[in-house]
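Quarterly update from the structural biology core.
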Amino acid sequence: MCFLVLLVSLQAMAINAVVSHSVFYLDDPAKDGLKMPGVEIYWQINPRTLKYTTGEDKMISGRIKTDIFMLNEAGIVKEDHFILKTVPSASVEELMTHSIIDLRRYFIGNGHFTIKVKLTDMADTMNKFSFSDSLNITLPAGVAWFSDVQILDTILLNNAHTHFFKNERQQLPLCSDFIDDHKKVLHYYAELYGSNKIAKEEYPLIQKVTIAKKPNDAHYSNFIKTDTLKPADASIVSGSFKINTLPSGNYYLNVSLEGADHKVITSHSVFFQRLNLHPDEDDAAKATAAKSDTGMEKVKVLDLDKTFLAKYTTAEIKAILKMLLPLSDAMGTQTINGFIKKPDDLYMRYYVYNYFLSINKKDPARAWKEYSEKVIDVNKKFKGRGIKGYETERGFIYLRYGAPTEVITVENEAGALPYEIWQYNTLAQMNHKDIANAVFLFFRSGEMVTDYKLLHSNVEGEVQNIGWRSFLYPNGRLQDNGNSRVDQYIGEK
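Predicted structure, tokenized:
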């Protein structure tokens, strides 16, 4: 049976990933009463920066070769090699909703180490990611100490024994130090060791978890949790803060252990950045926070009623956002899709205004007018039944790359579905690199009366389907003389 491979490339740049690590401690089986350090290395991959294969079952998945090394001055201390496979999906849209995240634990001794992580896309071995970081591990001199503090992305009450299983649940760590506007809760996890060795006169022991502007500084607003601890060889520090009221800014999550005299015995901090476009605070809370936080940025608010956007309704602003999708990178696309799913009139208008301001700082209205004229032209050229021209796939490519050098339309080739070839002598890709002789192959299936769908291109960042013939010729080639228009223009590109 023939195995059909479909390569879908969603971004031309190298694999985009973030990597982090945390140090925890376990009992050393070789040394009674002592702890040995273990390093958790975890990473998350942007699914748009991989290529995917589609099999004959039409399920799409990706495979990433993963190489991990831990080195000291003597050489390799630990190494690991494996293939990470993404969750099979029925469509590209579904694929983009999945997080590609993994974690591994390695037990090593004290000392200075270098961590190296290399990720290679198995569908395109030139598509790679490399990460390197140094790490110093020393057993703390005090009788009690904290592990690293880990901010968690997701907690699932599931006892399956995966790499993420800890504390009787699945704990997916946050791989970057950035918490975006969509996160309303901050989860955290750490471990405290050796509190049972603290002198009795220090009791009761007070554990505090705070969010502050500086390491071990006074807590910001009401972000503080306090607990009285019982002595233990090791105990868990785990909990959550609702951060819907936490304004955008730089912060630290601090954990500390205090004795009866309120002097700090041990502490640890981790930095994070917060983006909160919609802080949920009443006027009194805002005023209090503004007085106590000298690091708050003073933002000059633009009066949008005096801009070119004032005449448009919310529905029309949503339509303008959709018109910007062809010109958007992965981050911009994610932002726009977020607005479309959950509209916010004010911030949608700010986004559109700032986009055209970046094009023409003196006259953003003119930048919008020039682009809207292109959209009007596209609507005339590619309007389908019940769909705007800029929402069709040909309209999308036209807005992104401009008019093709040549268009070849083939309606009646024997055995083939109707198709159209766009050829560009020179084309500027989304990564700003020029490509010569760029081609796009569109086709019209039996379900589509007037519209065409993009089937294949040799432009990175667009659909790259090396099995395009199986779609274009659903019953197989009736003739194979290599002289069809599609063979002449596409061939093996």
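The radius of gyration is 28 Å.
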